[in-house]
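User: Hi! I'm working on a homework problem where we have to compare a predicted structure to a textbook description. Could you give me the structure for the chain below?
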Amino acid sequence: MGADVHEVLGVLGLLGVVLLFVMLVSGDSEAKPADNEVDPAVRRRRWEVRVQAARRLLDVCLPNVANGEKHYQEAERRLATPGSESLAVMEIEQACIYRHWRALLHLAVIRAMEMKPQEAIWAFDKAVLVVNPAGIEPDDFRPKMVGMALIWLEARPGLAKVLEDSVSRRHPGISGAQLRAKAVEEIIETIPPLKP
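Assistant: Happy to help. Predicted structure tokens:
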């Protein structure tokens, strides 16, 4: 059972990386202006403010890796059990209390899906700081988040339908895999990169 769960998660993660690559190669005609169009001093100040805020939020977390991992593994087990996604979210939240970076990334994706952008940014920024105390987003975070978004869209079909219907109204004519890819793209874009 455990091996099957890891195999499914691995396949979904790989699908996420492929999906991200396709989105990057195909581009987007309605892409937002690049962040590099902002004055570098303003961009750096925004980054500094986010890093400082994340450090303060991280200070109230407990640095107990073993407890975080225990809750994270339980979340994975719950996520593999149909109908237990709410319990999986609760375990993710518990793992986040212990600075578990993968749980924090999952929480960022979950909050972005729930249209709670500020909570998504806070979770993401804390994950960055756990992995890189300098406060610079690792290059592999976005592909990981794409895989996580695909997992949670499968686990929460009701929320997935709401998100996909919203995308469909704004982008008529796309359906199926393109619709899911666009929904994932919008989830990830909810969280601005954390780079100076």
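For your comparison, note the following. The chain has nine helices and no strands. The first helix runs from residue 2 to 26. Good luck with the assignment!
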